Give the backbone structure.
Amino acid sequence: MSAPVVGVLALQGDVREHMAALERVGARGVPVRRPVELAGLDGLVLPGGESTAMSKLAVAFDLLEPLREQVHSGLPAYGSCAGMIMLADRVLDGHPDQRTVGGIDMTVRRNAFGRQVDSFEADLECAGLDGDRLLHAVFIRAPWVESVGDRVRVLAAAPVTGAADRIVAVRQGALLATSFHPELTGDDRVHAYFVQIVRGVPDLP
Ligand code: GLN
């Protein structure tokens, strides 16, 4: 495959940062705002931002159903933070009318790390990435993954003071999600991993 074409849902959120990261790992990023722009994509990124706003705009732009169709019929997708929420089958602490694209059999809790630690950074072990150095992860009003189904592989967990670690990165087939924002750090290994998924490169055991 030459450079795969990866759409970035461009309704709201840090679209530019994802486009730049995709370009750096050899993909071509294209913004997606209208259903017609979903045609011919090899993959899709759902950016960080605010999942309640993203949900409203996706409904208003008639994009939610086309997104669901694409993702549920096998289009590889990667969601960071709000994008992770958009890929979750179930959301806790969401707005009552909040909708998701779904696809990953997981329950996520919005803004889960709490008010005192709205934003924090941590160095994590993350499975699937090139090299064995830790991944510097930036969390901004991040969700965590409360529970996952059998088909979901947990890639990373983050420490929580006085409690058990929480799941913050997962993969289910061609769907990938992180609670944190690799698009903001300049370490492009998560985007590189996603582009490998898009290219159909088999995962390490
Ligand atoms: N708290 C946001 C939400 O619910 C996510 C924050 C983010 O993407 N940085 O969508």
